[in-house]
Amino acid sequence: MGDLLRMALRNTARNTRRTALTAMTILLGTTLLIIGLSWLDGLLGGLVDNIAATAGEVRVLKPEYEAREELFPLYENIAETAPVVKAIQDAGYDAHPLIRVGVTVSAGEEIGEHFGLLLGAERSYYEDVMNLDEQLVEGAFFTPGEESAQVILGKTLAEDVGAKIGEDVLFLGQTQDGSISPIKGVLVGIIDATDALSNRQAYASLERLRYLTDIPDGAIEVAVRIGDPSRAREVAATLRESPALKPYLVQAWSERPLFATIADMTDLVYGVLAGSIVFITALGVLNTMLMSVLERTSEVGVLRALGMDRVSVVFLFVVEALVIGVLGALPGVGLGALVSYFLERDGVEMGEKVSAQVSLPISTTFHADLTLEVTLISFALGLSMAVLGALLPSIRAAGIQPVDAMRSHR
Amino acid sequence: MITRRALITSSLALLALGPAWAATPLTADQILARIDQNLTFESRSSRMTMTVTKNGRVKSYEIVSYGRGAEEGASEYLSPARDAGTKMLKKGDELWMYMPSVEKVQKISGHMLRQGMMGSDLSYEDMLESDDWRSNYNAVALPDEPMNGRPCWVLDLTAKSEDVSYPRRKVWVDQAWLLPVRQELYALSGMLLKVWIMSDPKQYGDRWYPMKMTVEDKLQQGSKTEIVFTELLFSVPLEEEIFTTRWLERR
Description:
The complex is a heterodimer. Chain A is of the alpha+beta class. Chain A has helices spanning 2-12, 16-55, 63-67, 82-90, 123-129, 155-161, 196-199, 206-213, 232-240, 257-295, 297-305, 310-346, 351-355, 372-399, 402-407, and strands at residues 58-61, 94-107, 114-121, 136-139, 150-154, 168-174, 180-191, 201-205, 221-225, 249-252, 348-349, 365-366. The relative contact order of chain A is 0.19. Chain B has 5 helices and 13 strands. The N and C termini of chain B lie far apart (64 Å).
């Protein structure tokens, strides 16, 4: 075994140019893997964080509302939120009643045709969950006690409408019966959120939204804030046991059909991306290893004639490939991690136009998420590329009869 | 004596001729003209209650309404308290709304026109629609069919242009009242959108006018709007200001 290892190590140094080329291929593959995987993790993680920040990790609503959510069927509301909120609080979590409606928005004397979403929530939700107060770029946060007369707009919506701080903003929505219903409020602040959806929204007090929709004591949904998206399903399952929540749908973020589809798609992209990079890199390794095996066919014949068995021949080439794999994967992981670190720290500004294409809280700046898991997976896959690329030529070499191999002049 | 005899004779002749006139078949176009005569007016003042049943909830509104010709109309909501003071003004094909809670006049346009007026089964577009059917539709007579035990003509109306809300209407016209007692309103695709019933007619001079209308939106299960006129006057003098946006903001 020791001889085989020494031989394999010596072989890597026999043709330094080819070894360097193979290592470079693996380096490139590993670098691409670590960047791609951490980028995908960042995208999904950012989406989950934004969902959690805008709708809670778990939400409670009527199943009939969820079934036709895109149409805003306001009459399918939770008429009395107090027992729902109490049940969630009794379970040890924060509960926030929310009303979100589609409205036309206008400012000043000009009445336009600008559409937006208007969210109604309690002050604590805006402060503790959405961190709206930290995203202000103009004006101020709601004045305590005067929330019902004030509104905050997302940057994009404020620009579209041409609203200025201190001006009245008029929202034209509908009651739960479908009657046109207006409210107005003084614009006190403009926020610049990390996601485009939040920048296209307006924010008012729950009380005003209850008036607008004519749902005096209710809400459309109650958001449950638990602070850890990964526990969402577990918390949702616990809450479902509460008798007060039985009539409602208790839904973790990952159980929302759209987001579940996105998570599935991300998994698919994850697999396809990793698979493609491994395959292409392995092809590169295969090419150089094939050359190496061909060059050493007669040498393999001598070794076989001296008594080396087939498994040892395969082992010899695989160890050689593993050594080259480590030489390529280690700097590959380092380089990939460095790029991912900067992508995580600074992100890449995609602009509103990209994130505005979808009705999801996707950030305008995409950040990578470099984790130890991604680093280890990338390193392991880097070595796999080398082994996979070396396996086929080495099996071929081991299968040649010693006499035929020695006759070869290659 | 001669005069008296002549009067009796002419009365008998008229009585004899009356049914003959009534029996004279009217063309589809003539029926439309008679409907237009009943439903259009120079001026009208009314008070009505509108009861909207939707998603298991019932909501009633009290409304005063004024109309001048087919082009001008104005209405004010008196109750419930939440909507009291809301006013609407129709001028040709434009519709304005005053919302007292925000003290603002808003022009209703675009997609909002297709929404239910105050959540009812009547859209704002319905409100803008002219009652002058003869100008807007071509009529084809279908076989007669009684409605609620009363003889009715049945007309199939096809829109002359794309400017109307409903490209096709099937109408049951009461032969005595010359009123469309039942209408089925269809989309271009042939889908039934609404059923509009006119009932409880009352005679005003030579005009019959329905005191009750019921509209059912067939795209929303269990959705129904009932309008009952509690006061109705035709040919009344109306203030010029009513049909201006100034009136909307007048308290």
